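User: Hey, my collaborator sent me this sequence without any context and asked if I could get a structure. I don't really work with proteins. Can you help?
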Amino acid sequence: MDIRKVAVIGCGMVGSTTAFALMESGLFTDMLLIDVNRDRAVGEAMDLSHCLPFTRPVEIRAGDYKDISDCGIIIITAGVGQKQGETRMDCIHNNVKVFKSIVPQIVKYNTDAFILVVSNPVDVLSYVTYKLSGLPAQKVFGSGTVLDSARLKFLVGRRLNVDPRSVHAFVIGEHGDSELAVWSSANVSGIELDKYCAHCGYVSHAENRKKLADDVKNSAYEIIARKGATYYGIAAATTRICESIVRDEHSIMPVSTLVNGHYGLNDVYISVPSLIGAHGVEDIIDIHLSPEEADALIDSAATLKHAIKEIGM
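Assistant: No problem. I've predicted the 3D structure and written it out in structure-token form, which is a compact way to encode the shape of the chain:
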């Protein structure tokens, strides 16, 4: 296995944009593109390769599953995209069928790579991938609420006129309608968020929090309604996760991972703060939750468990 070799399965808008972001990152020496439409994968590889005079060297090519044998990271973006008016959960049955055709092909040729699931509903499909692959949970995880957390930081930063990189806050739970923003530990460079808000003249904390959390939750719906799909944000989030693996950064991000014994949850893939490094998900971090947040996380997990039960996994 070569951690500097990556495969992207699915060359739709998310897959191709992710491939572009990965190319720009300089993390990898080789990138393999796989799609059910071989011509699409070949075309994307050609188009991306023409960028190489402007960026760092990376071998980009279209291929088949047999070519993934030495890839260190395999990213699955394939599936039926979320359409206007649909929730992420509405994609579930079609995409489970897609994954039942993809995952066995992956493990037929490679059982050493990390599998990063990006397709929606990401928590359910990460669990499906874990079950179908038979790989250790630390090697199979989803992009989770990494993007949702970035959206929250951006919106809080814009509201408070502060660099979003100085905002520290997590969105956890389902990457979907039952997700929750963890306000109890949110801060701006160590200053409790409510205190920083008061400093900026904002005092209606509960009302502002609800508006911001709703805006995060509904961001994808609004983008899909306006342009048909979301892909830049998730491409950046996926690249950031890969960066932490390849560089063994031990960064903490809310990826979708198997939770057993944390937060009162068991046998569910759900997004919680996790330590990401060269061994994948190396630890789950139990951050403080208020009683209301803890209850909301349990409710979110129940939503995911119900979906998993529905598909018979």
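In plain terms: The chain has a mean pLDDT of 93. You can pass these tokens on to your collaborator as they are.
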